[in-house]
Amino acid sequence: MLYSNNNIAGVLAIMLIAAPTAYAIDNPDTPSEVNQRIGSGNPVIGKDKSALCQGCHGEDGNSVSGDFPKLSGQWSDYIQKQVREFQNGARYNEVMTDMAMSVDNFNDLFDIAAYFASQKQMGGTPIEDEAEQKLYLEGQKLFTQGNARTGAFRCIKCHGEYGKGQPLNNNLFPVIGGQHKAYLIKQLTDFKHEVRENDRSGMMLRITTHLTAHDIEAVATYLSRVPAPAPVAVPAPVAVPVAAPVPESWKILLEDKPVNIEGANFVGGSTKLKSKIVKTLDEVVGFVGQHPDAELELIGYADSSGSAKLNQKLSLARAASVKKYLVKKGVAASRITAKGEGSANPIADNKTREGRAKNRRVEIHSVIKEEKKVRVTG
Ligand code: HEC
Ligand code: HEC
Asked: Hey, whose CA ends up nearest to atom 2 of ligand 1?
C-alpha cells in the first residue's frame, strides 16, 4: 500500500511544513499546483538523492537532449510508476532499466520523484521554421479535436490543455506538453508498435493504432513547441534622427559614388555572398527605404582572368545575386537594375591577387532625382 501514495492529507500537511520551498525559485506554478504533483516524498532530500538521475534528465529535470525525457513538473506518481515498471520489466529501455535498478529503496523513489515534480513545469521551445509551423497547427487540431475520419481520439480529453495534465489531483495522465519532440515521437511510435505496453488499460496502444507517422510528428511538434513570440512591431523609419550616425554607405551613395561589394565578399569564384557583407547590404536597404525616389543600379565586374564571355556571365550573375538579396529584404525589384560589364573598368591591378579580388565586385549606384534628394546630416 505504501506505493499508492494518493496524498494522504496528514502526510501532505507534514510535508508542507517539513519540506519547504524547493520549488520557490523561478517557479511560476502556484504552491498548490506544485504540492498536488509532489505526492508524499520530500523534494528537498530528493534533490540530493537524484544526483545520478540529473546526469541525464537535467539538474532541474529539464534535460537538454531529446534522448532523455524531461521530468520537471511531471506528476510524482507517474515518475514512480515508470521507474517501478522499468524495474519489473513492464517497460524496458536499455539505458533506463539499469538506472531504475539502482533505486532499491522506495522512500528514495518517493523523494526523487517529489524533487522532479516540484520543479518548474517543462516548457516547449519556439517553432523553428515554416514547416514546423504547419505541423504545429495540424498537431494542435489533432490534439484538441481528434480525427473523425481516421478514428484518432482527441488527446486533450485525457492529457488536458496543451498536455499539461488534468486539474484536480488526477495523476493518471502524464504531463506531455513541453516535452522533447524526439522523445514524444519515440514514445508514440513505441506504443504504436507495442514496444512500450505499460499504459493502463492499453489506452495509448489503442490511441496510437489510429495515428500515422505523420500524425505522430505533427502532434509531437505541437506538444514540444510554443508559437514564436510575435515580432516586436518596429515602426517604419520615417526620418533619420539627427543624432543617429549616418551609415558610411549612405554618405557614399548621396555623393553619387558607388558602394563597392568587393570580390572578397563572394565565396570562391562564385556568386554566393559572404555573410560579412550583409551589414552593408542591409544599410542599402535602409537607404532605399529612406529615399522613395532612389533607384539602384547594380553593375557587376569580373577580373581579367577567364574568357570575356565567361566574365560577362559571371559579372552579371554577381550583380543578380546582390539584387536577389536586396529584393528578399523588401526592396521592390522594379527599383533595381542589374547588369554585368565583364572585366571592364578595373579599379586595381589585374596582375596581383589582391588587385584581382578588388576588380571582382558589384558596384551599387543610386540614382535619385536631384530635386527630391534628401539631405542627411551627420
Ligand atoms: C544514463 C542516462 C539516464 C540516467 C542516469 C537516468 N535515466 Fe531515466 N531515462 C533515460 C532514458 C534514455 C529514458 C527514456 C526511455 C525510453 O525511451 O523509453 C528515461 C526515462 C525515464 C523516465 C520515464 C519518463 C516518462 O516521461 O515516461 C523516468 C520517470 C526516469 N527516466 C527516471 C529516472 C530516474 C528517477 C533516474 C535516477 C535514478 C534516472 N531516470 C536516471 C536515461 C537515464
Ligand atoms: C484515454 C486517455 C488518453 C488519451 C485520449 C490519450 N492518452 Fe496519452 N497517455 C494516457 C495514459 C494513461 C498515459 C500513461 C501511460 C503510462 O502510465 O505509462 C499516456 C501516455 C502518453 C505519452 C507518454 C508520455 C511519457 O512521458 O512517456 C504520450 C507521449 C502520450 N500519452 C501522447 C498522447 C497523444 C499525442 C494523444 C492523442 C493522439 C494521447 N496521448 C491520447 C492516456 C491517454
From this structure: 56
